Amino acid sequence: MKIELLDPARHERRGFESGNAQLDEYLHRYAMQGQRQQLVRVYVAVDDLNRVVGYCTLSAASVRHTELSPDHARRLPRYPLPAVLIGRLASDRTARATGQRIGSRLLIHALKQALRAADSIGVQCVIVDSKPDAVGFYQRFGFMPLQADGHQLYLPIATIRMLATD
Ligand SMILES: CC(C)(COP(=O)(O)OP(=O)(O)OC[C@H]1O[C@@H](n2cnc3c(N)ncnc32)[C@H](O)[C@@H]1OP(=O)(O)O)[C@@H](O)C(=O)NCCC(=O)NCCS
């Protein structure tokens, strides 16, 4: 399995099914448009036949300091803080059952991309828009709830950098 930027000329998306109709529809109908309009970068996990077995989206975003945990926010300025957003992340239901840890590998890839961005522009944290059922998946990686919305979670870039250099 490898992870690449979505390229419709090479990647076969038709059979992808995550179990969440909205996430599937996004990949099939809107992902390329989002890339063309410079709204997202879509990364796909593909098998040996270039069939998409998972995907995630990354965009620039911002977060209000009041949404972070009081402990974390205390040291930060009171204007919107720069962030990287993982807007969508899903693995194919059938491929998931083969134990390739597609979701984890996509998430780690996304965090590495965020770190690369943070080397050249300010990034305070990574945010994820989680589906309610997947909150536990992100919490396993240390993501914490944003105060405003239990389904949005965040991980400070400093924590990600520390984990990456360990
Ligand atoms: C959530 C999702 C992305 C996880 O992907 P995956 O390919 O199953 O993830 P992995 O195989 O890497 O799982 C890693 C670990 O997280 C656990 N896990 C998977 N989904 C989980 C969930 N929804 N809640 C809590 N833990 C979860 C796995 O059991 C595994 O545990 P282990 O380390 O003890 O074996 C996938 O289940 C999915 O696409 N779901 C439908 C769409 C969705 O809800 N997307 C996420 C929000 S945008």
TrEMBL record:
It comes from the Bacteria. GO terms for molecular function: acyltransferase activity, transferring groups other than amino-acyl groups. The keyword Transcription regulation does not apply. It catalyses: glycyl-tRNA(Gly) + acetyl-CoA = N-acetylglycyl-tRNA(Gly) + CoA + H(+). Residues 1-166 form the N-acetyltransferase domain. Pfam families: Acetyltransf_7 (PF13508). PROSITE patterns: GNAT (PS51186). Gene3D superfamilies: 3.40.630.30. InterPro entries: Acyl_CoA_acyltransferase, GNAT_dom. Keywords: Acyltransferase, Repressor, Toxin-antitoxin system, Transferase. PANTHER family: ACETYLTRANSFERASE (PTHR36449:SF1), ACETYLTRANSFERASE-RELATED (PTHR36449). Belongs to the acetyltransferase family. GNAT subfamily. This is N-acetyltransferase. It comes from Chromatium okenii.
